[in-house]
Amino acid sequence: MWSREYLGGENLIKKGVKMVKVKSYANIAIVKYWGKKDAEKMIPSTSSISLTLNDMFTETEMEFINDEDIKIAVEKEIKSENCKDKFGDMTDLFYLNGELQDSVHTEKISKVVDLFRKNRSQKVKISTTNNMPTAAGLSSSSSGLSAVIKACNELFGKSYTQSELAQISKFGSGSSSRSFFGPVAAWDKDTGEIYEVKTDLRLAMIVLVLNENKKEISSRNGMELCAKTSTYFDEWVKQSEIDFINMKKYLAENDFEKVGTLTEENALRMHKTIETANPPFTYFNEKTYEAMDFVKNLRNNGEKCYFTMDAGPNVKVLCLEEDLEKLAGIFEEKYKIIVSKTVKL
Ligand code: ADP
Ligand code: DP6
Ligand code: CO
SUPFAM superfamilies annotated for this entry (predicted)? Predict the structure, then answer.
């Protein structure tokens, strides 16, 4: 995939046309962003803190193309008249995990590219691959959208700072803004700032991959429904404010037990807004509950590990880097796992 002529840095030249290649890391929150106070200005209902993970990432290539390139790609894709409409009126080409995306999905990413280009006459082809399951609650939108933002920064010759890129990225996907900082990042709902949080703890995660399928309700739609209808939502926002302050304190004090305990509590509170939405729903399945119990039992037997879940059934286990190998050995007996240290950015 990366066999084209490479001219150093992040920039490549293909037949004299500039193209760029970037990598960006996913992040998993230990204090969750769940709800938008103002979707247009991208002000979240809750401040959040996350770990940026070295072994969960997206690789994205981007280049300029013209109308003819789009026509050829679409014609190649259209095998039956039926699906012709799906690819109509596309102004860019967007390949996600090797598949050409339809107009609806492409338009979403085109709007993100609009944040960098003068107008739509500057057409682009984006080819992006996630090394983790997409849209399964494993934070593919955080690495995916931050990668697009990084690629735009390169392709359009901008030289925004990490903070500036994070601020742009939140409009692509809120969680992606935190992927510009690491090992630990925060997004403050009141100041709007996105920044690195200092701690001497060397944190790590083990993802228990229980179901790789695309979720039925996206994070965006899920949190919107909860913010609008959950009877617990106000309480969630209030408690989350306290969680954010305490988590920063525990991280500064390097108190892993408190960090872990609060990580679990905060995740369960987020999921309570989902259970109390109207109509109520869940991202969990039987295996999710089993895995949560498994983690709790290990802890009762002296292991230092805590669970957290996002908008999907998969369980992530928070642990210390020093215990990663031992714990991975235990979990891999029972589960398909992704083991990851954090990354310093
Ligand atoms: P997740 O839990 O995986 O973050 P979300 O519902 O938040 O799930 O977001 C999934 C969406 O993010 C996908 O449907 C797609 O639109 C977008 N996405 C995922 N990976 C990429 C990528 N590599 N490049 C661009 N967009 C991506
Ligand atoms: C549960 O960033 O995926 O993962 O901003 O609408 O794109 P949009 O949603 P997204 O939401 C992430 C929610 C979460 C918790 C978190 O990462 O903080
Ligand atoms: Co997401």
Answer: GHMP Kinase, C-terminal domain, Ribosomal protein S5 domain 2-like
